[in-house]
Every structure is written in C-alpha cells, then in structure tokens.
Design a protein that fits this description.
The structure is a single chain. By secondary structure, the protein is of the alpha+beta class. The protein has four domains: 88 residues, Uridine Diphospho-n-acetylenolpyruvylglucosamine Reductase, domain 2 (2-Layer Sandwich); 119 residues, Uridine Diphospho-n-acetylenolpyruvylglucosamine Reductase, domain 3; 106 residues, 2-Layer Sandwich (Alpha-Beta Plaits); 80 residues, Alpha-Beta Plaits. 36% of the residues lie in helices and 20% in strands. The protein is built from 15 helices and 18 strands. A seven-stranded antiparallel β-sheet has the order 15-12-14-13-17-18-16, sandwiched between helices. Strands 5-6-10-8-9 form a five-stranded antiparallel β-sheet. It is globular, with a radius of gyration of 22 Å.
Length: 459
Amino acid sequence: MPSREVLDALKGALGCDQVLTDREDLLCYAYDATADMPRHLPEVVVTPRSTEEVVQVVQVANRFKVPIYTRGSGTNLSGGTVPTRGGIVLSTLLMDKILEIDHQNLTATVQPGVIIQDLNDAVACYGLIYPPDPGTVTTATMGGSVAECSGGLRGLKYGVTKHYVMGLEVVLADGQVLRAGGKTVKNVTAYDLVKLFTGSEGTLGIFTEITVKLVPAPEARRSMLAVFKDLSSAARTINGIIAAKVIPATLEIMDNMTIRTVENYARVGLPMDAAAVLLIEVDGIAEVVAREAEAVARVCRENGGELTEARSDADRDRLWAARRAALPALAQLRPTTVLEDATVPRSRVPDMLLALQEIAAKYNLRIGTFGHAGDGNLHPTILADERDREEMQRVHQAVDEIFRVALELGGTLSGEHGIGEAKKKYLEWELGPAGMDVLRRIKQALDPDRLLNPGKVVD
C-alpha cells in the first residue's frame, strides 16, 4: 500500500472514485499482454479524465518520489506497462474523447484513451482513414499506439504510427505541459519534439492530446491468397512483387504451423498442406488497383504460387480474420506464447525464415512464424510452458539467437512492439555504447528522478 499521505493527495486531486487500491483491482494492472514477464503489483491505480488531473497526479508523484506507469489497454508486447517498481499506474482509459475531426485539414485530435478502431469508425463518414492498423486495433488505445510507435498490417504502404502523429500535448516529469507540432503539413521548427516523444514508451512524458494525420480512404481494393509448396518460393514472391513496382497495402505471410493452427481455430478454408501462404491486398484508384493485381498474380504464378481472389466483402473479411487470428490461435497450443517482432530488410526475409527454422530445430522448440513480410517485420512465435524451467531456458537462448541473426542481416530489434523491459538487454547490440549514452542523457534531462516508467528501455 502507498503511504496515507500519497493516497490522501491523490484522492484530493481526483476524488475517491478515480483512485483504486483494492487488491483485486490492482491485480488487473500487474501484467500486460507480454508472455514470460514477471508480474508486479502497483500500489495504486488512478484514472484521470483530463490534462489538469494528469498534471495533479504527476505533481503528487514528484512530491513523494513515487514512480508512474502510464497504461492504455495493456495490449503491448514488450513488458512496457508492467509496474516493475510498484508505484502509481495511471490508466488513460477514461480520457477517451475524440476532441476534433478536421476534415478540411485532414486531421483528428484525440485524448490518449480513444480506441483506434473507434477513431476510424468516426472518420469513415468523411471518406477518411487513420492508417496505422495493429492487430489489436479494436482494443488498443491511441496513446499506447503512439507510445509504442505501433505498426500493423498496412505498414508496408502506409507506414507506422510515427508517420501520422503531427502534434502532441505532453505532461512532463516535473508537471509542466508541453505542446509540440500541430496541424501544419510542414513544421521544421527546432528539434523534432513530436518524433522524440513518439515511441518513447512512457519514459519521457505522458500524452494527454494527440493530433494525427488522416488520409482519403482508397476507392478500390483487391485481396488475394497465394499458396506455396515451400517457404523459399513465398519469399521470392515477396521480393518479386516489390521488384514489379507494386507496393501492396498489405503483404502478410503465414508458415505451415501457423496455417494449420489458424484453420483449426477459425475454419476459414486455409490449405492445411501449404508450406506458406501470402495474404495480399492492393488498394487505391480502381485502374491502378486492377493493374497492380495483375502484376501480383503474374509474380505469384512465376514462383509456383496458386492464387485465389476474394470475390466479396465477406470473402475479404474471412481472409483478414484468418491473419488476425494467428496469435490467438497459436496461443491455444501451449500455456506460454512468446511473440517477437524481429525485423530485417525485406530482401533478407528468405534468410530470416530459414534461420528461424534452424533455430527451432537447434533448441527443440515449436516456432510458428507469421507477420508483415512485405516490410520484413516477422513475428516468430515460440510456444512453450513457463512452468518448465529447462524449456524456458531453451526459449531464452532461442530469442537471443533470433535477435542476433536479425541484426547480422542488417535488421532491427523491433518493427512495431517496442523495447520495454523485454528487449532492453539487446539494445546495445544495435545502438552501441554511444547510442546508449545518448538515450541515457535524454532520459536524465527529461526525467532526472526516474519517475516515468522506470526500468523500461534504458536504466
């Protein structure tokens, strides 16, 4: 329990209903969606509704030197919202207002607790979309998505969250409120503070308002399923599609283990004997979509792929439901599902797929692989049981090797899941001592008392 002084100060700032201390409530905030992470009970959970209330929480934390862990829906996959040192969990779920949809400037301004799908539903009547599309789009919050710089199925063509964040209101560690960026298409004033805070995983400030770019919804789209007898043919097809100067909205891959598991789970008609399938969607102007779909079909045939196309919205929905079912389907097989997002240049996807097969055999593990193959962002998913210490030791060795290989292939530790606590031990492998020193200096400058999400990204 926090001290009586801390509790009284928080209740005085927010009211009793927005300060949770019952153990059953606290247990819900002791973990996030990341497997194989220790659980830590917070001392108290607060649910502010406004920027002013967030400022008051931060002021209390400063007065008593209590850490703050900002949390949205907790769907993140790097241990980023686990309150590793107790303290205050600040839930943004009550800050769920869409403050403005400016269809003339193609922007929306939201509070951090807005669900991504709710924003897309709200802008659809204007013929607009917010492109970032994480797998948990129906539950993930805008604040969490910006904090993690999440990606998703449309990342190949449309990019990731940082490409759409135009402005932020941020409560800093000392309680000051910073506004950076705005609605202007061009903004090169001073350091790019919007980019600095985007992807900072709650370690530098707390978002209270977010202004994002919207884009016109595509007028046409075509979705296809390509079936392959071997992984190498599927990988060659990925490179061939890009070489044909086609940038699909979505270009996803599932290996045989994932295919069989998803089909048993969702019964969507996937070919159980395929070594791999590609799920492909092209969108845009109707004439261009027709031409790109023909090019995709040609490349698939040249590489031995068997192509079928969704003929209706219902067919398309089934296709993408299959892809979104990959993680929950795999998670059924064993008690512990370790999902990674090692990312390599797309030309090295074949090498990474082969390496994953070798790592699975080397450590005698079941690894199902799916992911955003068009941008090189793969999700090797290790199925295990955390109660088996010997097996988990092999899992940890395999994860080490996955990231070592990804970096050797010119890749990166994360394409969309962030670093959090789960990957911070690997950071120096990618950034080197100088890069780590820069991260620590930034953290020290903005949060000298280490109150904001301590223990994440950098110590």
